[in-house]
Amino acid sequence: MNLFGVMDVSASALKAERVRAEVVASNMANAETTRTEDGGPYQRKHVVFQAEGGSGSFQQSLMSQIGGSGTARSSGLLGSSPDEAAGGVAVTGVIADQSAPLRRFDPQHPDAGADGYVEYPDINPLTEMVDLMGATRAYGMNASAVQAEKGMLSASLDLLK
Amino acid sequence: MQTTTSLSDALGRYLDLASDQLKLTATNMANIDTPGYKTQGFDFEQTFRDQQAGIGTGEVQVTEVDGLVARPDGNNVSMDREGLKLAKTQLQFRMGVELLKHEFSSVMSAIHAEAK
Amino acid sequence: MVGIDPIAGALQGSTAVFSGLPDAGTQATASMPFAGILQSMVQQTSALDKKASQAVTGLLNGSGVEVHDAMIATQKADMAFELALQVRNKAVGAYQQMMSMQF
Lengths: 161, 116, 103
Known about the structure:
- The complex is a heterotrimer.
- A two-stranded antiparallel ribbon of chain A has the order 1-2. A two-stranded antiparallel sheet of chain A has the order 3-4.
- Helices cover 43% and strands 14% of the residues of chain A.
- By secondary structure, chain A is an alpha+beta fold.
- Chain A has one domain (3-160).
- Chain A contains 3 helices and 4 strands.
- Chain B is mostly helical.
- Chain B has helices at 6-30, 44-53, 79-112, and strands at residues 40-41, 63-64.
- Chain B has a two-stranded antiparallel sheet with strand order 1-2.
- Chain B is elongated, with a radius of gyration of 19 Å.
- Chain C is an all-alpha fold.
- Chain C has 4 helices and no strands.
- Classes of the chains: A alpha+beta, B mainly alpha, C mainly alpha.
- At the A-B interface, helix 1, strand 1, helix 2 and helix 3 of A face helix 1 and helix 3 of B.
């Protein structure tokens, strides 16, 4: 992973955090949705992150790029290998929460069941807001990491001047 | 014909280490929300001194960092630590680049110096 | 900077040859003031260069040298080098001018 590859790592984080923010927005928008296409109330979704490390630890991927005998880092001049950035993060899935829905008694509601209870998704707006704040600060951190990487790259280009 | 100095070699190694530190910090930052991820790092000053003295394999030993508190999902990445490392590494890299530029430019000016 | 020590040593040796004595030292300074000046300039430049190199290495090692100290030492060495260079240029120019004089 050369210095350009580092930007791929931060870019993967930006992508992942954006997905997380979208899921939070979707949860909050559907907090009162009692009816979906599959029938039943909206199920709260959450994302699963996974670190990408390639075949081993960071040490191994770092060393594999350098080469066994200390040759030049020639593997990929303008980018890392075709697979995902080693060391980055990927969203491995957006899965639905399996917890039981919230039940409120409202026999007049069109979606009320036989016993008069309506099922609502169990979405706590406070939890969602905290999640969103977490996604925002992680996004901001990784954006400033991209700025730092850009700065370092252009500083090293200055060597030729 | 010798056009490099021991100082420019040392500066080259310094820049290599700074860019390795940046990669590690970027990886830690990217995985701040990954459950179970442990912060990875290496001792910058010690590694640089070892490389200068020629001891060890010259490779960077990446280990898990101690002393960090893990959150309930198992992730122990500290935003403050990574932000600080990022700022510091940026400045270190820039300092190394400026010093290296100066090394090369002083050799160049000696080569270009002409008597009238 | 590439070491100036060999030059300082050569200069010392050459002043000894010109003054005809095996151990020039102050004798050379007295009889050939300019050579002495140039030699001391080169020596000072070499010393400042060494100091700057040490300061920068200490800074890189993290052994307590402050950034501004290393920068100041580097700048001092630079200025000494430039000064010695310009003095040399002027001296060579003056010599050529003298040599081109016709009687």
